[in-house]
Amino acid sequence: MTSAKARRMQHRALRPGVEYEFEKLLISREHSRTAVTRMLVERAEHGGWELDRVQIKHDGTRRVLLRRRIIRQRTVFV
What Pfam families does the annotation carry (predicted)? Predict the structure, then answer.
């Protein structure tokens, strides 16, 4: 993982025992709504991401926050 990507991704617990990984995207205004929709659907289907929030700025750029659940394997002692 590159350092730039590491800065964009965060880990946060919204509820006890449930952790999410977040990724921030900044999408320029040159991309059409259908192109952005296709890109986000592709990330959801193949990366396990879900849409957390979208903010459209005055200049037309979109700030998108994606999240996916982190599943931790519990160790079992026998």
Answer: DUF5703 (PF18963)
Domain ranges in the chain are 3-70
Return the sign of the alpha-carbon dihedral for residues 63, 57, 40, 16: positive
Give me the helices (H) in the chain, please: 3-8, 33-47
DSSP conformational letter for 71: -
Would the pTM count as exceeding 0.85? Answer: no
Report the alpha-carbon distance of residue 23 to residue 66 in Å, rounded: 5
Separation of CA 26 from chain center: 11
Distance (Å, whole) CA 31 – CA 27? 7
What's residue 1's pLDDT? 38
